[in-house]
Amino acid sequence: MIMNLKKLPYELSICKLNSVTDYNLDLDFCSFAKTDDEISLVCKTEDVPFDVITRDDGWCGFYFDETLDFSLIGVLAKISAVLSENNIGIFVVSTYNTDYILVKSENFDRAVSVLKSNGYTFLSD
Known about the structure:
The chain has one domain (4-123): VC0802-like (2-Layer Sandwich), CATH 3.30.2130. It is 19% helix and 36% strand. The protein has two helices and eight strands, in the order βββββαββαβ. It has helices spanning 75-85, 105-117, and strands spanning 4-7, 12-17, 30-34, 39-44, 54-64, 91-94, 99-104, 121-123. The protein is globular. The two termini are 22 Å apart.
């Protein structure tokens, strides 16, 4: 199973939006989710639009530094269980290639330590 993780070098915010029409998609990191009920955005804290409905700042993240094949089973379940057992909540952003696991800033160092002690490797920046 994939065990190599890499830290994101910036803090993130999770936002609820009215619209995505004015967001600059050329910025480094952003992920949108749109359902019948809402539009959500995860982006670098410095790039949060001024007109959000609500926002939650103070998230740090890491990701699997490899492309995850769709046939892999339990990758998120395992990492989620390890963090859950240590009372660390997560917010996940999935892309075609990989998964990004976000934890609150105050829990980030502990999350890294717990994952390392469970066999995960954090690659240097």
